[in-house]
Design brief:
The protein has helices spanning 16-29, 40-46, 54-57, 79-91, 103-114, 139-159, 175-183, 198-210, 227-237, 259-277, 297-303, 310-319; strands at residues 2-8, 32-37, 49-51, 97-101, 119-123, 163-168, 188-190, 216-221, 243-247, 283-288, 291-296. Helix 6 crosses helix 7. The protein folds into 2 domains: 3-138 and 257-303, 3-Layer(aba) Sandwich (Rossmann fold); 141-254, Phosphofructokinase domain (Rossmann fold). It has a 7-stranded mixed β-sheet, with helices on both faces. The protein starts with a strand and ends with a helix. 43% of the residues lie in helices and 18% in strands. The model has no long low-confidence stretch (mean pLDDT 97). It is of the alpha/beta class and 323 residues long. It contains 12 helices and 11 strands. Bound molecules: adenosine-5'-diphosphate and 6-O-phosphono-beta-D-fructofuranose. Adenosine-5'-diphosphate binds next to helix 5. Pfam families: PFK.
Length: 323
């Protein structure tokens, strides 16, 4: 029987389990053994294998996190480690690897391809920051979790007529901030891709209040600055406001994946198996105009940058720029 392996790497993301499940189901469909590698590239080097059956993935489509565990393992940049991983897989009769993770993990997949070992990537990170694809698995769930949390904060903010600054994740990308900010009608959204002026942020919240809104909501992407520091600076410029800061932190990364993340994960998991069985390698899957698309790892990651949805950011700017 042919044999493929699958691993999850980097920050976990809701929907990773749905992708693993699709890999296992598609493997069974093609009579291919699927070996789960636990703890990302670390497990790949150590041969930490778990042969996967339906029993492992049953009900996993609706579970957050990753049943294969994830790890950050910087040592995998070293050629020795990569060769060890290839040896382990070759000895175990594995003929291809599916890597579910972010762009860092794709570099690991590429390194294996360069050593002649076939590897295909599935983009999964809540940050949505991978060039080429419009969506990454986990982003929709994280953005929805942030939206629900901001809604909850808005209830208490309104009851006390307070201004809340809410820090969301995203590493160097502003995607979660933009989408959750638009989804909650935030007075201001701050992202690392756009410069901001404190006076302008204060003006937007004040104008909201003067038009009758009973509280203020500022959504701050972690890539801009930490919420504590921001609140200190903001409070100096807006002494009339009762300001509080909240960091949503890892709350955004857990929980049941949204339907959208489950569907994309299922599409990509099944396709990854088909592509690798047809001899494709050094590529990753993604979504372009709602359709499944295939990207070359080297070409796309080297020549493209991730772009945030400027149109949504500008929409929010326009909506909160009152007379
Ligand atoms: P993400 O995949 O979410 O971007 P990281 O950047 O932390 O997360 O990368 C995850 C893992 O991928 C790293 O811990 C390491 O094992 C592997 N990796 C990252 N960059 C490289 C690289 N240049 N070469 C080989 N492996 C890499
Ligand atoms: O890449 C996902 C992510 O959650 C980022 O948004 C965040 O900057 C980072 O991982 C946090 O990493 P850790 O969980 O290792 O602190």
């Amino acid at each position: 029987m042919r044999r493929l392996a699958v691993l999850t790497s980097g920050g976990d993301a809701p929907g990773m389990n749905a992708a693993i499940r699709a890999v296992v189901e598609e493997g069974l469909h093609h009579e291919v053994d699927i070996i789960g590698v636990q703890h990302g590239f670390k497990g790949l080097v150590e041969g930490d294998y778990l042969p996967l059956g339906i029993n492992h993935v049953s009900q996993s489509i609706r579970r957050g996190g990753t049943l294969l565990y994830s790890a950050r393992f910087p040592e995998f940049r070293e050629l020795d480690m990569q060769k060890k991983a290839v040896d382990q897989m070759t000895q175990a009769g594995i003929e291809g690897l599916i890597v579910i993770g972010g762009d860092g993990s794709f570099q690991g997949a590429l390194a294996l391809t360069k050593l002649g070992f076939p590897a295909v990537g599935i983009p999964a990170t809540i940050d949505n920051d991978i060039p080429g694809t419009e969506y990454t698995i986990g982003f929709d769930s994280a953005m929805s979790a942030a939206t629900t949390a901001i809604d909850n904060i808005s209830d208490t903010a309104a009851s006390h007529n307070r201004t809340f600054v809410i820090e969301v994740m995203g590493r160097n990308a502003g995607d979660i901030a933009i989408w959750a900010g638009v989804a909650t009608g935030a007075d201001a959204i701050l992202i690392p891709e756009e410069e901001f002026f404190m006076g302008d942020i204060v003006r937007r919240v004040r104008s909201s209040r003067s038009h009758g809104k009973d509280h203020g909501i500022i959504v701050l992407a972690e890539g801009v600055m930490g919420v504590e520091e921001f609140v200190k600076e903001y409070a100096k410029e807006a002494p009339e406001q009762d300001v509080r800061g909240v960091n949503l932190s890892h709350i955004q990364r857990g929980g049941s994946p949204t339907g959208r993340d489950r569907v994309f994960a299922t599409l990509m998991g099944a396709k990854a198996v088909d592509l690798i069985l047809h001899g494709q390698s050094g590529i990753y899957l993604g979504i372009s105009s709602e359709e499944l698309a295939v990207f070359d790892i080297v070409e796309t990651l080297e020549k493209n940058e991730h772009k945030v949805r400027d149109d949504l950011f500008e929409l929010n700017q326009a909506l909160t720029d009152r007379y």
